[in-house]
Structures are given as structure tokens and as C-alpha cells.
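ok posting inputs for the zinc ion job
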Amino acid sequence: MKYWIHTFLIFYSLMTLCQLQPFLNERDQLVNQWVEFKQGEVMGVIEDEHGKPMIAQLRFFDPDGAIVKRIQSNEEGSFEAVLDEGRYTLEISKGYEYEIKQLPIEVQNENPLTLTSISLARIMDWGAKQYISGDFHQHSQFSPDGRNTISEVFDANRANGLNSGALTDHNTVSGNDEWVTLAKDSNFIAIPSQEITTKQGHYVALNTTELLDITELETKNDVEKMISMIHEQGGLVQINHPGRQFLNWEQAALFDAIEIWNGRAMPPLSDQSGVETSFSYNEISKKKWFDLLSSGVKITALGNSDNHDISGGSMGASISENKTFNEWMADGWYNGNPRNYIKVEEQSITGILDGIKQGHVFITNGPLMDITMNNVSFGDTLENVVDAEISYLIASNHGNLQQLNIIADGKVIEEIPLAANVPTIGTVTLNLSAYHWVVFEVTSESFEYAISNPIYLK
Ligand SMILES: [Zn+2]
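and the output
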């Protein structure tokens, strides 16, 4: 079981002990009964800290820490699940700004378990720092390999605490009307999009409503044509998972964004030796992006789930020899993991697109960062810098942070230890006169990771 699960279990066990006493007594009476084929019901309501019902994600883990089921509460906060009799740990979460709760539960055939008023508090507010979170590469049933309806994908986005999202089905825009309509009366920003799947690579055409004719895009020279077709629609183009299949690196500068972190593979941590390329390509993408930055190309890095199944499954049967990889894969593949945090001037599609164009973005699967360097931040440029004062605030609801790496021109020039369980706030002054760009990276004791776009120096 992952380290943070243990941490939360210990943390909440005292709190939940009194609540669970009746169930524990009943469990003891049932110990000797034959329970193999019996199932029981679990239901309840999730609320925020003010008692307002909310949509959230629930995962049930067996005593070995394996995921048994993933569901989400509805608009009224209520949820219901049927599970085999037995003991589970119920995890309730809503992305990276709410606390994550772990409750030990007992499921019994004769005795439906009702968990009333489970409250989940928002413990961080990156919206107050003008950040919007978004996953800009997600699939529905409109893709041949997608599992879910549009409304299931929409609910999964909100259950995972996303503020915005793009629907990017393969070579179709058929789901976009429903995607945009569902978000109409909510504060979720739904961006109509499509994934252009061609022999020349895969691309997200973000904010496009008209279908692009891919039969026109068969040769390398057609990439430029594709980019202008997307720009004419008011969209942005992202190179998808380039470490896996993008070949035309000399054309990379023409794109608006590069997906250096695709949710289907491990986070771009530095050492992935022993993991097959099909699941470690993000590391290759990140290195390629560093090379582009060092050659003077400014291109915004994004990270998206590329989710095809909100249940977190469909990762493929491939099991590696690598233990770390298997642990990562067993945790599932969810919407918004990873996601982008974009600093916006307005809460709209235009605000998001402008933020991406300007590189005001960091990518994360948990850790949140707020960093300034001589009062500018990600995507900005500083001129004639010698000593740079870097102020940082790093936090996570997962609680096992390790260090903040300051990377200049591709090399780690400073490693700052982070407190595992509480936010770290600090300032460091570095002489950066020899460098051209600086990226910030947050590492943890497991797979939680975050990386920023560069602050450019000239
Ligand atoms: Zn895709």
C-alpha cells in the first residue's frame, strides 16, 4: 500500500473509531459465517465543509490495498455501491485542493451501510491565486477505444476537482455539443476539441468545433497546413505524447504546446530504467522539450490524462518486471491525472488559451506550486538577471513531498528539501547570469510530481 494511505489511515482512525463501533461489533458476530458469495450495500452523502452536497470521487480498496471499485457521488452528494461482503478502506477525494479521507468500512449482506454527512474540506485554493485546473486530452464513447458517455466523463471531471476540460475524441467532434451543453449552468469550462490521429502523429486541436479532414494530412509537409487550419478556427495545437511517436522535431516550434506528460505513462521522473518505453515515454518527451528550450524554441509544456475509461482501468495487461512501475499502474488512470494549472486573466476559454500561449502553466498529479522569480512567474521573461530572488510555496494534499528542484538549462542547480506533510514556504537567491531558462520540479517519495513551464532569461 502506498505510504500516504498509511498516513491517512493513522490520522483518521481515531476520528472514525466511535462512529464505527457498532459496525465492528456486528462484524465480530459475523466472523464465523459463510460469506463468500454475499454482497452488501454502501451508501451515503458527501458534503463540503459548509454542509453543501458535492460531487466527489470514491474508491474502495481491499485489505491488501488493491482498488476494488471507483464511483462518484452525484450532484446531490449521494452515492451507492454494491460490494462483496468484507472490510474495505473507502477513500474520498476531489482532486488536489481538497483533503483526502480514508474510512475503514465493513460491508455486510443483511445490513446496508449508510455513511451520512461525510464532509470533505477544501484545504487549498489555487483559484485564489488565479489558477484554473484543466485536463485537455480526454476520450468518450465517440472514440472507438473510449468507454464512457459524455455525461459520465463530465461528472468524472468534476468529481476529480477539475475546473475545465477538453473532449478530444479521435477524428470526430460529435460529442462536443453535449460536452459544452452539460457545462452550461456550471462553473466548469468545457472546451470543444478533437484529437487528430494521423500517420504523422497525434495532435489535440484545442477549441475547435469543425472536424478537420485528416485525409488531407498524409505527408510531413501537411503538418503546417493542419496547424493553420486549427488556428483559423481559433484553436491551439498540441503535439501529443511525442516521446512515443512524434518524429518531426524540426517542426516542433510551429506548435502551440507539447504534451510532455501523458497520463497513460509514468510521470516524467528522472530514472525509469527497467520500464518499457511504452510506459516511460514521458521522460523522453521531457528531455526533448528541454532540448527545444535550450535551442531557443519557446513552446508550452502541458500534461493531460488521455483518459479512455473513468474507472481508471484499461491500462492494458502489460505487467513489467519493474516493481515501481507496477505500483504506479495499480493506482489507476483517472481524468485529470495529470492536469494543468493555468494562471488566467479571465475565467473563460479565451483566458485559458491565452494562459497556455503565454506558458503560464505548471503540470501536476498532486503537488501544487506558486513560485515567483524577481516578481515574475512561469512563461515570463526576465532581462539581464544576475541574482534572482526565488520565492516558493509548495503544498500537497497527498502529504509525502520530497524536494523542489531548480533546473536551469536542463541541469538541476539547486535542490530544496520540502516538508512532507505541510506547505513549504521559502526564498532562495541564485546567480543565474549564465543561464537561459529555469524550470521548477517537485518530487515526492512516490509518484506525485509537478513541473512548471520555464521562466526565460535574456
Ligand atoms: Zn488520445
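notes: The domain at 3-119 is CATH 2.60.40.10 (Immunoglobulin-like). Confidence is low (pLDDT under 50) at residues 1-24.
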